[in-house]
Amino acid sequence: MRTLCLALLVLGIGTLAHGQAFNIFSRERRIEPDFPSLPANHLKFYLKFAQPMERGEVFRHLRLVQIDTEGREIAEVPEPFREVELWDGSMTRMTLWLHPGRQKPGVNLNVEIGPILEAGNDYRLEISERWRDENGNALGTRISYRFHAVPADLTQPAPEKWKIEVVDGVPRLLTYEQLDPSSSISSIRCRRQESKTPFVILPVFPNATTKLPYSLNHSVFELRVPDKEFPQTALYPVAWPPGDYELVIDPKLEDLAGNSIARPFNLDLEKYPDFKERTEPVILPFTIPERSK
What we know:
Blueprint: E1 5-11, H1 22-25, E2 30-32, E3 37-39, E4 44-48, E5 62-67, E6 73-76, E7 86-87, E8 93-97, H2 100-103, H3 108-112, E9 122-127, E10 143-150, E11 163-167, E12 170-174, H4 181-187, E13 188-192, E14 198-204, E15 220-222, E16 243-249, E17 282-288
């Protein structure tokens, strides 16, 4: 599995941009996640656009196709999506679900039609160049994302295995697993140990200019200090003030297959009738050392 290396952007004591400075990310058209490999039980994509998009018949602009190793189309995957439009308030970000009924073993659609993704196969998600924004302007260029399906991820995120390292005064969280982008934004907070007052952080991929010895299939978060708290104009993270901090991780945090810290996505209650969901947050302490002048 690709290790997720995310950058954490702090807002007030905030978006994912793989290889881009965060201040231009809002103008990007992109598909998230964009790891080279995804688990066969992957659940959600996030489609991001520069402008509010035309709505109502969006699924005619979306395709999931199986491809060969050279990228040639083998076949279109039938009925892959849960055809419900889920937009953010700006109408520039749509959550695209692979149908959970087909991705969850033993459910009717999974039995009758089969799973959407099969481990070992290659796929391409396509957004048609004919899709228009609210002003009637077509995208003009097809947006696509190619990935390889690996065996299903049936394990819960394990924050006890994560690592926080500090590079030039900037903390980075290495999760060694793939996390859901939206869940990462909503479920990870930070606080100073002495005050215990949490402040918001947003996951941001380190910029392409950053030399990181990490796998492309891993999640890594880099923490960015907000202008509001520590005024600065740099496009990239600057050193944090020295001191002791804690990451506060909500147990609702999910991986790409919908497994959360609290519970696995495909929990068999008949097999585990006494299973107790975790409700307490996970606390990961770290220290920003004094920097030599």
